[in-house]
Amino acid sequence: MNEKKYTFRTELRDFLYILSGSFFLAAGLVFFLIPNKIVTGGVAGLAIVLHYLIGFPTGMIMLVLNIPLILIGWRYLGKLFLLKTVFAIITASFLTDLFIINLHLQQLTSQLMLATIYGGIAVGVGLGLIFKGNASAGGGTVVARVISKKSHFKIGQILFALDVLVILTAAITFRNVELALWGFLTIFIASQLVDLILTGKPAAKVAVVETNQITLISQRIYQDLGRTITIIPAKAFSTGESKELLLVIIDSSQVNKLRDIVKFLDPQATVIISDARELLGNGF
């Protein structure tokens, strides 16, 4: 494929992700979070607080708050990343105010639990799509990246601290601790959706088996599950004894069958099963 054509298609795909993500983000804010005073993290959460304090439209506040942060990030972050982030910020801010001011869309529920769950889902889907478009929704992410480059703190730690600060500000402003608790739950739900979109559902598992019957178990797994096995040489730390570990990637539906095989052939075997968050290669 022509490199220019590939680049164009890639950038077009990214901007479509960002546009779709901005729509979901704005919908989550307008239909669920803003009318119920449920504050998510970052600039969007702070914008909700300021909206109730000064009465300006939430989208406009989001845009204004992000301007100095983008200017700060321009020195430290990639130009293309920041350009896409600016596009995401403008689009999400515009859609938020468009839904409320021009289209007069109303909240879908006043029940805090429903608003938290569905607001968190919508915001999580929105952020996940924006991230998938190689951008961010601005605000906290930009600040976290800059601080991370200048300190030993990780981006995740900085984002968590900023989110906590925003929600505590909301609790003090609204004089309602319960709303802050709902806000934390919203952030948790949104983060799970972001992970799901970026890495996909863990439909596969990685199993590591320590056994004295490695040949028998390997043959049985290959015959019954149709999976290729990798044998890894290892050494026990305490005794220095050399041994081999069996590693195999299986579908989630094959976990119980694997357990049955290992338990039947070697009841003393040790089995570790974990999620495979992302798989590339033949068969996946």
Task: Outline the structure in words.
This protein has 284 residues and is α+β, with helices and mostly antiparallel strands. The chain has 2 domains: 3-199, no CATH class; 204-276, Alpha-Beta Plaits (2-Layer Sandwich), CATH 3.30.70.120. It has helices spanning 3-33, 42-54, 58-73, 79-102, 112-132, 140-150, 155-174, 177-199, 214-225, 255-265; strands at 204-210, 229-235, 242-251, 270-276. A 4-stranded antiparallel sheet has the order 2-3-1-4, with helices on one face. Helix 2 (42-54) crosses helix 3. The protein is elongated and about 70 Å long. The protein starts with a helix and ends in an 8-residue tail after the last strand.
What's the quick description here?
The protein has 284 residues and is of the alpha+beta class.
Strand order of the largest sheet: 2-3-1-4
Distance between the termini: 23 Å
Overall geometry comes to elongated
Number of domains: 2
**In total, how many beta strands?**
4
Helix content: 55-70%
Mean pLDDT: 87
Sheet with the most strands?
A: 4 strands, antiparallel
Low-confidence stretches: none
The helix/strand series, from N terminus to C terminus, equals HHHHHHHHEHEEHE
Number of helices, counting only DSSP H or I runs of 4 residues or more: 10
Report the sheet-strand fraction: 5-15%
Structural class of the helices, strands and pairings? alpha+beta
Question: Could you name the key traits of this structure?
Answer:
alpha+beta; 2 domains; Alpha-Beta Plaits; 4 strands; 4-stranded antiparallel sheet; 284 residues; 10 helices; 11% strand
